Automatic annotation (TrEMBL):
Topology in the lipid bilayer: Single-pass membrane protein
Compositional bias of kind Basic and acidic residues: 97-106
Annotated TM spans: 38-59
A Pfam family hit: TPR_19
Protein's name in the database: Mitochondrial import receptor subunit tom-70
């Protein structure tokens, strides 16, 4: 129905796998979010949608019935409007953002002559009647506004202070804060606006002003809460406050991500991730000399190398960790003979999976020097170049690899992935075809060809490719998973769910205990899309997480589903977890943007329960 959307990711990891899977995770989720308007989360009738670019707030056109709450909101609005009117009459300080304009305005005609103004002190005020206090307060405020307009900030501060002695009006505090703001005395701005807000909790100007001061004081999280609160209160009318939210979210998330990346413990990603990485290469038998039956000296590098390759075959997370350690040890022990290139390739691969890219590239480069036939090392190098954003360099790697062996189907497959990512679908299709011609048994070339045809708009040939692939590989879960995704994209949700179910069944049969959980997650999303049934969708995600607790996609999906249900606190735990699982800084910044935004909303919800006026559950637009 809809045109092919950009959310079909270029299939099983490949050149791109680490890259592409990681960068597309959030993209995929956010595309899904914005398309389905499903994973929005509402607070005070405002839907918050996260996108790859940051947080986007949508006004959730509230089809509001007449409720007592509405009238409360109305009252608040009216109150705000009245105050605005009062302020704009004569209150220059209330609009420090338009100082220039204010200056151009004719000065108020009847400004008090200074000597007529009473000097108010703590003692003298005690003797005044209420009426007198009110009168003096008003006169002092107006004089203060004039001084502010003349940029005589210290004088204005003195006048507002006297006005405050007469009357504890939040406007006076907020105006005095504007003076401190002009003088860059940020802590005093915070103090005064905080007092103003203790009197009037939803005083928009004070909220904005305090947020700005927090920002200047580098108290970014407080600033973020302030600007977000301002956005919610004025229904996102103020673009500069919304921009401030986006900017601060990025600042906070980036700062936090850099801190975490620096002292992050490097661990392997989930078994689902690692599985996907390895299946993007054709399975190669262990080389002669490293088979189970070969006699190898105990405690030798070669023995460790074999141990690593054996552990790899288990396809479990403990297996992968064993393999990683064994490859490290193999190189430490040395004396690897003809297998040295392979050992460096394997250690480099695991370093890449750990996110230690420089070390990984050094290993892979060395492995090619030692053994120029290590085409996989070229491919893996290309994948890391791509992750660094250097597609040209990646193409060079493929060219070099093909010079070494132009009959290696892996090279064509991965180059196709690169073309795909760059949107060069015709070239991609050609390379997938080449890879298939050289080896018809590698299923991902078939699957990806189908996906590419779909992207090129050839619906019929794409479906034909998938049907043929299902027929030729009836026991392979991946084909059902991708087929399902295609059907989902075409709006055939029921058929899609069927395919995902088949994929789940085959996965659990083929890899009991360490199955690829993505089909489960896919099914969860499809169920949610079809039935808007968050509970059932969550159950499926939960199941995925029991099997692979580290699966970042499952974690992030779960967070979104919880948000959708209005379970903000729990969503936050999952977003935090997603940040913990992030492998790259880019991924981590994304995850942290979500978690920071969620934490901020949670805080507002706790502090301003009266703003949460809308149903927080299934508020689907
Ligand atoms: C306030 O009034 C009291 C008595 O009415 C008087 O003694 C005192 O001087 C006055 N204080 C000021 C500051 O005017
Ligand atoms: C809009 O937001 C900015 C930034 O917070 C603030 O300085 C400004 O006063 C706001 N404008 C209005 C009309 O509230
Ligand atoms: C379904 O799973 C595949 C990986 O097997 C993934 O690439 C794809 O994006 C998933 N589909 C959705 C809708 O998340």
């Amino acid at each position: 129905m809809s045109n092919p959307r950009p959310s079909i990711p270029p299939g099983p990891p490949a050149v791109a796998i680490p890259v592409d899977q990681s960068s597309s995770l959030w993209e995929r989720i956010s595309t899904w979010v914005s398309e389905n308007k499903a994973v929005v989360y509402t607070i005070a009738g405002v839907a918050v949608v996260f996108t790859g670019a940051g947080v986007v707030y949508y006004l959730n056109t509230p089809a509001e019935p007449q409720t007592p709450r509405l009238s409360k909101k109305e009252r608040r609005k009216r109150k705000e409007a009245e105050r605005k009117a009062a302020e704009s009459q004569n209150n220059v300080a209330a609009q420090p953002e338009s100082k220039e304009k204010a200056k151009e305005q004719p000065k108020p005609a009847a400004v008090e002559a200074e000597d007529e103004l009473p000097t108010i002190t703590e003692e003298s005020v005690a003797n005044l009647t209420t009426d007198q206090r009110n009168e003096y307060a008003d006169r002092l405020k107006r004089a203060g506004n004039k001084a502010y307009g003349d940029k005589a900030y210290n004088k204005a501060i003195d006048l507002y202070s006297q006005a405050i002695l007469c009357k504890k009006d939040p406007i006076y505090y907020s105006n005095r804060a504007a003076c401190y703001s002009a003088l860059s005395e940020w802590q005093k701005v915070v103090d005064d606006t905080t007092t103003a807000l203790s009197i009037d909790r939803v005083y928009l100007k004070a909220i904005n002003r305090r947020a700005k001061a927090y920002e200047e004081l580098k108290m970014y999280r407080d600033a973020l809460v302030g600007y977000t609160l301002a956005c919610i209160i004025d229904n996102f009318q103020n673009q500069s406050a919304a921009n401030a939210v986006e900017k601060l979210l990025k600042v906070v998330a980036t700062e936090e991500a850099q801190k975490r990346m620096a002292d992050r413990k490097q661990t392997l990603p989930s078994h689902t991730f690692v599985n996907n990485y390895f299946v993007s290469f054709r399975a190669k038998p262990r080389p002669a000399g490293l088979e189970d039956s070969d006699e190898l000296p105990a405690g030798s590098g070669k023995e460790q190398l074999r141990l690593g390759l054996q552990a790899l075959e288990k396809k479990t997370s403990t297996g992968y960790e064993e393999a990683r350690q064994a490859f490290d040890k193999a190189i430490e022990l040395g004396d690897l003979g003809e297998f040295e290139g392979l050992a460096y390739n394997m250690r480099g691969t695991f370093r890449c999976l750990l996110g230690a890219h420089e070390e990984a590239m050094a290993d892979l480069t060395k492995s090619i020097e030692l053994d120029p036939s290590m085409t996989q090392s070229h491919i893996k190098l290309a994948s890391m170049r791509l992750e660094q954003g250097d597609a040209d360099k990646a193409f060079e790697d493929f060219t070099t690899a093909l010079a070494a062996n132009d009959k290696d189907p892996d090279i064509y497959y991965h180059r196709a992935q690169l073309h795909f990512i760059k949107g060069e679908f015709a070239e991609a299709a050609k390379d997938y075809q080449m890879s298939m011609d050289l080896d018809r048994d590698f299923i991902f070339s078939h699957i990806q060809l189908g996906v590419t045809q779909y992207k090129m708009g050839s619906m019929a040939s794409s479906l034909a490719t998938f049907r043929r692939t299902v027929k030729n590989f009836p026991k392979c879960p991946d084909v059902y998973n991708y087929y399902g995704e295609l059907l989902l994209d075409m709006g055939q949700v029921n058929e899609a769910i069927e395919k995902f179910e088949t994929a789940v069944e085959l996965e659990s049969k083929n890899n009991p205990g360490s199955m690829n959980v993505l089909p489960l997650v896919n099914k969860s999303l499809a169920i949610f899309q079809m039935k808007q049934d968050s509970a059932e969708a969550e159950k499926l995600c939960q199941k995925a997480l029991e099997i692979d607790p580290e699966c970042d996609i499952a974690v992030a999906t779960m967070a979104q589903l919880l948000l959708q249900r209005g379970n903000i606190a729990e969503a936050l735990t999952y977003f935090r977890r997603a940040a913990d699982l992030a492998r790259t800084e880019f991924e981590m910044i994304n995850a942290l943007s979500y978690s920071e935004a969620t934490a901020c909303q949670l805080k507002i919800q706790e502090e301003y329960p009266e703003l949460v006026s809308k149903v927080r559950s299934a508020n689907l637009v």
